[in-house]
Amino acid sequence: MSTHLKPDPIRSPLLDEAKAEGIRHGYFTRVGGVSGGIYRGLNTGPGSADDPALVAENRRRVAEWMGVPAAHLLTAHQVHSPDVVIVREPFPGSRPKADALVTDRPGIAVCASTADCGPVLFADAAARVVGAAHAGWKGALTGVLENTVDAMVSLGASRDRIMAVLGPSIGPANYEVGPEFVARFVEADAANERYFAPSPRDGHAMFDLNLYTVDRLRKAGVRAGKLDRCTYAEEDLFYSYRRGTHRGEPDYGRQISAIVLEERG
Predict the structure, then answer these.
(1) Which of 66, 160, 169, 261 has its CA at 20 to 30 Å from residue 31's CA atom?
(2) pLDDT digits (tens, 9 = 90+) for 152-165
(3) 166 is in which domain, residue-wise?
C-alpha cells in the first residue's frame, strides 16, 4: 500500500444528506497511511504496538481530511461499555474510558476506533449535534447505542431527526460464536435468536452483529442504516482483530470513523 496516497474514507449516502448543514463524516480505511508490516496503511490506534510516531502521522492525515487540528480528532479509551461522554473541547489529559462521544461544538471531530466492532456515526443536522459510538457485541447488548441517542437528545437533538449509520464491521459470514455467547443474548431477549444462524461447527453459531445493531438503533427511534462492509473479508481495506487472531499475528491495527460539525462563516 503506497504511503503517498491520501486517506479516502467511505461515506454513507444517508449521512451525506447532512453535508448541506455543514456536517462532514468518513469511515476511514487502510488507504493513505504510513504504517508498515501488519499495520500496513492508515493505522490510527494509539493502543496498538505500532510506532507511535507513525500512528500520530496517520491521525494527523485523518484530521486534515476532516478539516480539524490533530488535537481535535477525539477517540475515547474504549472499554466495551455502554458509557457516553459529551465533549466540547480536546481532552485535557488522559482519554476518558467510554465507548461513545457526542458533541454540539463545531470543529470537534468525534470518532470511533474499530477492528471488527461496529463504528456508528450519528447526526441531527437541524439541531447540529453529532456522535460516534464503538459498538461491539457487548456495547450493543448493554445499551451504548441508546445511550448515545439519549446524550444527543440532552443537547437538543430529536430522535426522529437523528440519522445513525453502522460502518465497516465483521459480517455474519465471518463471526462465529460459541453456545455461551448465544445463551447470553437469548437470555436477554428470546427474540435475539433470529440473529444467529447455524455454524459448520457443532454447537456454534454465526452471529449477525450488523443486523442486531441496526435493529437496536431503529427501536431507539432513529433513522438507521448500514454500509454492509466486512472488516474480516476485505483485508486490503480494513484491519480485523479476528483475522489477525486466526493467523496468530501478535497485534492488529485500527481504523477510525469520524464525524464533525464544520465551522460556519
Answers:
(1) 261
(2) 999 999 999 999 99
(3) 15-171+208-261
